Automatic annotation (TrEMBL):
InterPro entries: Gfo/Idh/MocA-like_OxRdtase_N, Gfo/Idh/MocA_Oxidoreductase, GFO_IDH_MocA-like_dom, NAD(P)-bd_dom_sf. It comes from the Bacteria. This is Gfo/Idh/MocA family oxidoreductase. Residues 131-251 form the GFO/IDH/MocA-like oxidoreductase domain.
Length: 382
């Protein structure tokens, strides 16, 4: 294989990130499709491709190797299944699907297809995230104990003007699914399997069917604990993960994408300095508490930001080399299970264990658990 033949279905805002990333890779963008023909024409003209008014016509005319699905999330599963039925591979924009039932339907179609399914979780692919995952997995930064995961974003009322936004059918869920899922996925990627969670969700201000703020307390199989908050009401926007280990504190603060400078690691103080903590509460400690070697600093290399170009460039390279790209549909199941559990816990008031999330679980087929909307409205009141 020389250049990869790629296509894009869905020509809205996020499609431009895919098209731009593909433009920098050894691929041929053979077609773009949208049910609004003008959008397809505009994207095709900008990136020297061919516009189509449907996925079906695109597949018939171009036979791509890989198709990016960048439509509203309510359509992801059906489009992915159609692409797989044609024997082609799929790259799903986040969130990949709206439920575990949809995820399993796509996975079943993948098993029967020559194609594979990948998911956009680009925060796994920046150099900082790669370093963090490697150092945490080897124990070089110590054993994780406590973590904080925050997605504090701001979306005005006008953001929900498109008819598909703000609805269970169109978006599938609120900031937990559509926004915080990036940070949640990175947290799980760094800390490993989660065991159980307890959550709260509220609707404070936005005109939506689901939450505009959610919070969860999480226990991991390793014994580590974490808090997660997702908000669309936070004017000073921030995405943040902090992991406190036996060796120090690892932290990333960014917005929509990080570079290496957004990460920091503060080694734990030595015994003498730790013993002095709190002895003079009125004095601010300013001295450097780092001692010995710093594995985080020692691991520094080239800076690769966590954007679409990082993951799509890596995906293309993997496919051309015949390697397995690690951000597969299967690898993202724990993230969708986490999101499902958060909604289940928030709407039922009970803790949810990951092992419970089987096809018989009430929230397996939909994040609202088929709870009547008036009951959801009552549950989300503050």
């Amino acid at each position: 294989m020389t250049d990869l033949k790629v296509a894009i279905v869905g020509c809205g805002n996020i499609s431009r990130s895919h098209a731009s990333a593909y433009a920098a890779a050894p691929v041929e963008l053979v077609g773009v499709a949208d049910i609004v023909p003008e959008k397809a024409v505009e994207l095709a003209e900008k990136y020297s491709s061919t516009p189509f008014d449907s996925l079906t016509s695109l597949l018939a005319a171009t036979s791509p190797d890989l198709v990016s699905v960048t439509t509203p999330p309510g359509s992801h599963a059906a489009l992915a299944i159609e692409i797989l039925a044609a024997g082609k591979s799929v790259l799903l924009e986040k969130p990949p699907v709206l439920s575990l039932a949809e995820l399993d339907a796509v996975a079943e179609a993948e098993q029967a297809s020559a194609g594979s399914v990948y998911v956009v979780f680009q925060h796994r692919h920046g150099s900082g995230g790669l370093r963090a995952a490697s150092l945490l997995s080897t124990g070089a930064l110590g054993r994780p104990q406590v973590a904080v995961c925050e997605t504090l974003w701001f979306r005005p009322v006008s953001y929900f003007d498109p008819e598909w936004r703000g609805t269970w059918v169109g978006e599938g869920g609120g900031p937990t699914l559509g926004h915080g899922i990036h940070q949640i996925d990175l947290l799980l990627h760094l800390l490993g399997p989660w065991k159980s969670l307890t959550a709260t969700a509220v609707r404070l201000d936005r005109p939506v069917e689901f939450e505009d703020v959610s919070m969860a307390s999480v226990i991991f199989e390793s014994g580590a604990v974490a808090t997660v908050i997702n908000s669309l009401l936070s004017p000073r926007e921030l995405s943040r993960i902090r992991i406190d280990t036996t060796g120090g504190s690892l932290e990333v603060n960014h917005l929509y994408g990080y570079s290496d400078t957004d990460w920091s690691f503060t080694p734990a103080p030595d015994a003498a300095r730790a013993a002095a903590n709190g002895l003079d509460p009125g004095a601010r400690r300013t001295e450097d508490v780092a001692v010995g070697t710093d594995p985080w600093a020692d691991s520094a290399g080239g800076d690769v930001p966590s954007n679409h170009a990082a993951q799509l460039g890596r995906l293309v390279a993997d496919l051309l080399a015949g390697r397995t790209h690690e951000t597969t549909l299967a690898s993202t199941r724990p993230t969708m299970e986490f999101v499902t559990a958060l909604y289940a816990s928030a709407l039922t008031g009970a803790a949810v264990h990951r092992a419970e999330l089987t096809p018989s679980h009430p929230f397996y087929s939909a994040l609202h658990g088929n709870v009547p909307q008036p009951e959801i409205d009552q549950s989300l009141k503050f």
